[in-house]
């Protein structure tokens, strides 16, 4: 498959071209014919929350997403509301219980608001499931067709860490707004005058937090079951502050569109941010979603004006001569980055700009990263120490450090 053919319809509709995608998310060419579990990209990130009505509003009003589809009591689904939101090629599905006996209630009681399903677009659901099963994966949903007047989708699902799953979707024979059972829906929400069309265009990576000692097991799962390859490795002291540490490895699908860093806590003097997550999420789960933007400065300004809070970066970070020498020239003056707390990292391929929100939900669990890549295919390893020290200050303020 050529790299041109790997552009999804969503990406085309979001006015994303190949060069932008290479820059935004580090898309690369690869031979999918030799892949035992070909994945073409992200399909959706599915959330279960305590109040889907309000969360859907928040993602529209604060994050500039657009409501495109809905399922709920008025469409024959009496169990829950489900709002489908998009920003460029990113699709979120926000679910919240209506029926007090909905199975979503128990999931939410245990985990709070969070990501339940990282759904992936695959060209051949049956091939993937056959391979996953042969490799010992837990198949949660057997391959099956769902049909409505817009066509047919083929779906299946496998379990990953914690209560998280990967739904596998082939929607090549479907033209509806999301899935059968959903209707097209728009919202009366209007962006403010002068606001950009969208604040982010693509999903770059989704990070999973797993228990102490389990990271290599899950790296092995993605290698074996899904044919993902290892991208980068951060171990031990790479991500240690004076007090806490974590280990992280990154796996990616063939075209690098789907990247999964996996973190586990490391033994240290104090409880790491990963331990805090595992305590409050009641187990492994999705820690952060990195949203690729082509203008991180504007995105941060817009989000800040909407009340979204970011982790503060100490002034010392920007004044550090070693850092300044290492990052060299970037597209904006350091002072502009400093004003917003945007971090910079550079490697042999280029640089990236990134920033992290505070937790988005009531528990100190899931958060967003905004990332603007300029050649670098990394994850900001040079920033991990500064970042974790910032997270630890927040953790201490919450009394969990
Ligand atoms: Fe990240």
Map the helices and strands.
Blueprint: H1 9-13, H2 18-25, E1 41-48, H3 52-61, E2 66-71, E3 80-87, E4 90-97, H4 103-111, E5 114-121, H5 125-134, E6 139-148, E7 151-159, E8 165-170, E9 183-184, E10 202-209, H6 215-226, E11 229-234, E12 245-252, E13 259-266, H7 273-281, E14 285-292, H8 296-305, H9 315-319, H10 321-327, H11 334-340, E15 343-347, E16 350-356, E17 367-374, H12 384-397
Parallel strand pairs: 1-4, 5-8, 10-13, 14-17
Antiparallel strand pairs: 1-5, 2-3, 2-9, 3-4, 6-7, 7-8, 10-14, 11-12, 12-13, 15-16, 16-17
Bound molecules: fe (ii) ion.
The site of fe (ii) ion has 6 residues, from strand 10 and strand 14.
Family: Belongs to the 4HPPD family.
Protein name: 4-hydroxyphenylpyruvate dioxygenase
Keywords: Dioxygenase, Iron, Metal-binding, Oxidoreductase, Repeat
Quaternary structure type: single chain
What hetero molecules are in the model?
fe (ii) ion
Q: At CATH's second level, what is the architecture of the largest domain?
A: Roll
Q: In angstroms, what is the radius of gyration?
A: 20 Å
Structurally, how many domains make up the residues?
A: 2
Q: Please mark out the parts with pLDDT under 50 across 5 or more consecutive residues, or reply none.
A: none
Q: Give the strand content.
A: 25-35%
The named CATH superfamily of the largest domain: 2,3-Dihydroxybiphenyl 1,2-Dioxygenase, domain 1
Q: Look at the structure and give the mean pLDDT.
A: 91
Query: Sheet bearing the most strands, described?
Result: 9 strands, mixed
Q: Helicity range of the residues?
A: 25-40%
Give the number of helices. Answer: 12
> What's the N-to-C terminus distance?
49 Å
CATH domain topology of the largest domain: 2,3-Dihydroxybiphenyl 1,2-Dioxygenase, domain 1
Q: Give the class from helix and strand content and strand pairing.
A: alpha+beta
Q: Give the beta-strand count.
A: 17
